[in-house]
Amino acid sequence: MAQKKIGEQTVKFDNPPSIIGTATIVGPKEGEGPLKDYFDLVLQDDLWGEESWEKCETKLQQEAIKMALKNAQLIESKVEYLFAGDLLNQITASSYSARQFDIPFFGLYGACSTMSESLSLGAMILDGGYAENVVCATSSHFSTAERQYRFPLEHGNQRPLTSQWTVTGAGASVLSSYGMGPYITHVTTGKVIDPGIKDANNMGPAMAPAAADVIVAHFNDTGFTPEDYDLIITGDLASIGKSIAEELIAKEGYDISNIFSDCGIEIFDPKKQDTHAGGSGCGCSAVVFNGYIFKNLKKQSLKRVLLVSTGALLSPTSVQQGESIPGIAHAVSISTIKE
Amino acid sequence: MAQKKIGEQTVKFDNPPSIIGTATIVGPKEGEGPLKDYFDLVLQDDLWGEESWEKCETKLQQEAIKMALKNAQLIESKVEYLFAGDLLNQITASSYSARQFDIPFFGLYGACSTMSESLSLGAMILDGGYAENVVCATSSHFSTAERQYRFPLEHGNQRPLTSQWTVTGAGASVLSSYGMGPYITHVTTGKVIDPGIKDANNMGPAMAPAAADVIVAHFNDTGFTPEDYDLIITGDLASIGKSIAEELIAKEGYDISNIFSDCGIEIFDPKKQDTHAGGSGCGCSAVVFNGYIFKNLKKQSLKRVLLVSTGALLSPTSVQQGESIPGIAHAVSISTIKE
Predict the structure, then answer these.
(1) Do residues B171 and B187 share a domain?
(2) pLDDT tens across A171-190, in order?
(3) Same domain? A189 vs A151
(4) Domain range holding B324?
(5) Which pLDDT score, from 0 to 100, does residue A125 have?
(6) Which of B117, B171, B189, B269 is least surrounded by Cβ atoms within 10 Å, i.e. has the fewest?
(7) Looking at CA atoms only, how far is residue A32 from chain B in angstroms?
């Protein structure tokens, strides 16, 4: 049997899957941010004609999947697996979205790391020869997340400056064994790492060690250096977590400062948009990746990108029970060439 | 590239992964049921020295993984991926369990279908050449599930006769590219199917169509008939759901009545144990599979089994918002020979 594992945590694909189409749908606030021109659809309000924010989130994900298929010029019956997850209890945005499709479904939970978790598994299933086309999708919604994780919106609580703003948005990628790229060439799968932080309003530092660990593992396993990348972008470390991750990675001998960014930093203008440390949520790296990054890869203004979606694996119950917040991150290497 | 897909939804493995070790830990009630002699450890109480039921569930999963590795005579550093999920909000039993291990982690959510979801993905990752050893695990706990999905236990609510009893237990399987079997030979991945049922105390019928659909797809894709199996066992359809599934499958031309059972029916004695329609929870098919079924496969008293863990994809919020309950099921074919 072919051994495709390189190093401890990385897979290098023999037949790198191609991303043949993506789609992004975002809420009004995201549509006013710095990346507004890269999204396929910006909603006028956060209900989109639905009776609840949760139903709106399901619709976001479902419509993003349909739009990604359309953008990929692929019909639903050609898709062999759907990989999706979200932040809602029991990932109902994904399950209720998947109900609309006649596609075998694997439900995932990786908190805000779900975009790179789904791309990792989807790419392995394609390269392994189990499918020719898969869809990877995720979503989040500011109002469903706030009332589930924190307080009712009506409560009008003050948000600490370390807090992040959950992105309202959904992104979907169609991966294929065929296609002209960009290609997923490597995936490095992360471990759960807990730095002992207990403040649920300060999740960047809880996730930073996991992000640093997987990025360092990626370099060690592949032999790549920061110079091989045009962009290394974490999911939602935001401003506080990003600087911690950068420092932890530097301690391991890799200076990524010139090419390092974070989806949570890129999506909002914190000064104009009152988003404090930055954006967060599964939808954050999903819309930045499937919008901004994918479009720049297509026009070759980015040539090789490492997407590192990051997740904080807390629940309101675990926090109430005095638990600290473990983090996870998965790295996906995407290139315009099939090396 | 090898095309390993057969039919619409099934993968047939070139190098069927071997299940080289399993472990099961159950609560006191499960330890008094008909399958009590097949479990590795029966707890004396439902806290196991922890401060909360949720922390007990984390410990259940974590100790089941350690015990499965011991039973497989494998050290942790040889395991390349851990696939796990559970019913708790944000799958904290799995994430906090995974925190204890230095193993790359993929979090899953498939409700009570998680055991066969994890075995499906784990087997594909092994057969695809991405790993030599993976662990698949899941858990549930009666008391964490009751208070999360239904009422505080102190409320002492009356349970309708259609309701099921969430199993307190965890099961883990170690899969390997090497080993003497039993082997996972095929996986058939299910779709989300919603029969429109809105009663969260009657989940068997909500899952039965998904179970029937994936079993029929398995027969159609593989050419197997009911005669090829010693046992076809669903996850937790329990008494009401099982009879519906059997009828739906018969309508498609397959009479499985002689070899059809359900983990939720096998695990408790409903008359003596007051469990109404039967057992449920991720832990239900996990402990029946990793205990009773695995041990019977090892001693060849079962030769070919189709495990079909079943999940009801509701959340308390989706039910409160008037949504119906979609179901999902994944089928995993396990044989004593590597055919």
Answers:
(1) no
(2) 999 999 999 999 999 999 99
(3) no
(4) 183-335
(5) 98
(6) B269
(7) 30
A20 plus A165 within the same structural domain: yes
- Domain ends where: A176, A191, A218? A176
What CATH number should be reported for the domain holding residue A28? 3.40.47.40
pLDDT of residue B165: 95
Q: Return the ∠ at Cα A170 (arms to A164 and A173), rounded to 5°.
A: 125
In the structure encoding, which two tokens stand for residue A270, read together? 């914190």
**Count of the separate structural domains present in chain B:** 2
To the nearest 10 degrees (0 to 180), the angle between helices A53-71 and A142-149 is: 140
Q: What is the pLDDT of residue B270?
A: 86
Per the CB < 8 A criterion, the answer to whether A307 and A230 are in contact is: no
pTM for the predicted model, two decimal places: 0.98
> What's the burial of B88, exposed, middle or buried (CB within 10 Å: 0-12/13-18/19+)?
buried
pLDDT at A156 over 70: yes
Task: Give the list of residues 6+ apart from residue B14 with CB closer than 8 angstroms, or none.
Answer: B2, B4, B127
As a whole number, mean pLDDT of residues A97-101 equals 98
Q: Given an 8 Å threshold on Cβ–Cβ distance, is A101 in contact with B125?
A: no
- Tell me: do B16 and B52 sit in the same domain: yes
Same domain? A142 vs A249: no
pLDDT digits (tens, 9 = 90+) for B8-48: 999 999 999 999 999 999 999 999 999 999 999 999 999 99
Distance from the A129 Cα atom to the nearest Cα atom in chain B, whole angstroms = 5
Q: How far apart are CA B300 and CA B168, in angstroms?
A: 28
**Domain stop point among A176, A191, A215:** A176
Residue in chain A lying closest to B52 (CA): A321
**Bond before A195 cis per omega within 30 degrees:** no
CB B235 within 8 A of CB B310: yes
Tell me: pLDDT of B3 over 60. Answer: no
Inter-chain residue contact A128 with B131, CB threshold 8 Å? no
User: A256-267: string of b/e by CB count within 10 Å (b at 16+)?
Assistant: beebbebbbbbb
User: Nearest CA to A166 among A250, A48, A46?
Assistant: A46
Q: Are residues A118 and A46 in the same domain?
A: yes
Residues A157 and A187 in one domain: no
Distance between B2 CA and the closest CA of chain A, angstroms: 6
Question: How far does Cα B198 stand from its chain's mean position?
Answer: 23
**Chain B residues near residue A197 by CB distance under 8 angstroms:** none
pLDDT at residue A275 greater than cutoff 90: yes
